[in-house]
Amino acid sequence: MRISAATLPQARGAARFGYDREAQKVGIVHFGIGAFHRAHQAWYTDRAMEAGDRDWMIAGVSLRSAAVAEQMNPQDGLYTVAERSAAGTDLRIVGAVREVLVGTGEAGAIVARLAAPETRIASFTVTEKGYCRAADGSLDLNLAEGGFYPLLADAMRQRRDAGIAGLTLLSCDNLADNGKQLARLMGEYLFARAPDLASWFEGECRCPATMIDRIVPATTGADRAEIEAALGLSDEAAVVTERFSQWVIEDRFAGARPRWEAAGAQLVSDVAPYEMAKLRMLNGAHSLLAYCGLAAGHTYVHEAVADPGLRALAERLMREEAAPTVQAAPGQDLVAYADELIARFANPALDHRLIQIAMDGSQKIPQRWLETLEANRRMGRTCPAIEAGLTGWFHHLRGANGPVDDPLADRLGSMARAHDDLQLRDLLVGPQGLRIE
Ligand code: CS2
Fold this sequence. Notes:
- The chain is an alpha/beta fold.
- It has helices spanning 35-39, 41-50, 67-72, 107-115, 141-145, 149-162, 178-193, 198-204, 221-231, 272-295, 301-306, 308-322, 334-345, 354-358, 361-378, 384-397, 409-418, 421-428, and strands spanning 15-16, 26-31, 57-62, 79-85, 88-94, 97-102, 121-124, 168-171, 210-213, 239-241, 246-250, 266-268, 429-430, 433-434.
- A five-stranded parallel sheet has the order 6-3-2-7-8, sandwiched between helices. Strands 1-5-4-10 form a four-stranded mixed sheet, with helices on both faces. Strands 9-11-12 form a three-stranded mixed sheet, with helices on one face.
- A hairpin with a 2-residue loop joins strand 4 and strand 5 (88-94).
- Residues 174, 213-215, 283, 286, 356-357, 364 line the site of D-mannonic acid.
- This is Mannitol dehydrogenase family protein.
């Protein structure tokens, strides 16, 4: 039997919400309702409602694939979060998702949700490439037409014309200064396609920055079987994650927001030091372990970080290359942070595939490695660990680990095959990011 509102009372061995989900209105439309969102923002929202907050149900949007809708809608949006550590697994059933809409056939329903007065927040985990940026960082208008931009523009027009308040656009992706980037890209879209909305957007909407952190490997069939055995119900939308979770949010919303702090989120005035430390240290070390770990024959992060040579490289990247480029906030301890990251990477209960992290390198490497590299260059310092990572990436681009999953795979692959590592390093890595022909 499968989890749903009707079968929920039969679920065993899992913590769960106590609020009346049917009585709650949708307050958030979320683009990219994959495993990460389900283990992170939806989990915080569920616990904020558990703590007494109301009307923050989430309408999830999957822009292209109907797969998540097929996982979640037959379950009335219910799913399980399994938190795993060496000490064991804890399950929680999350009630915060109302429905999943699919962009390809349900654009009208998505715009209606976004335009509804009770919707206050549109949030995003669409991955780095979902923002449709060209190589120079500006908006690629052709790509943007297939993304979330036109849906938001339609909804903004309806809100403005009906005199409804503006939305908060909350980027929860691993981009540097994600709030500002989203504001700029949305502005570029409106300027080109709906210039009459540009000043309404600027005046009425807000795009706070966020730092989001939780390691969420892709769920496997074995994970689903284990969760079914514990729960007594099958769950096609279950997600597996670590116990650790962090969410730092710039407290600058257009209107109301959930009391996510009741679930442990930090609302601050400046996210930059947290975001920079996370991107450059955690994600930077992750990408290093991915490319160098795959080259050394490893499959999972915990295997790569148990390899003494790779661990030393990851330590070096975090402590000697990345940390010195981050201006820490008061109370932010980057030495302790690096210790904690190594321990999280070593979590033996989490099979986090290196190949999953190796995906979309062209979208990730600028904010993970190149900003660090440039900051060190300005201090007259070299970055041997990042250089080793770049060499690992070049091998990856030449197909060393199988077909390359990256929106720029073709262009990068032919560049990588036409040049040796040194030439490629000079050609590709510029002070402003990657230089892609
Ligand atoms: C990872 C991230 O896949 C990747 O590129 O580095 O998804 C990482 O697990 C998360 O950012 C952790 O918060």
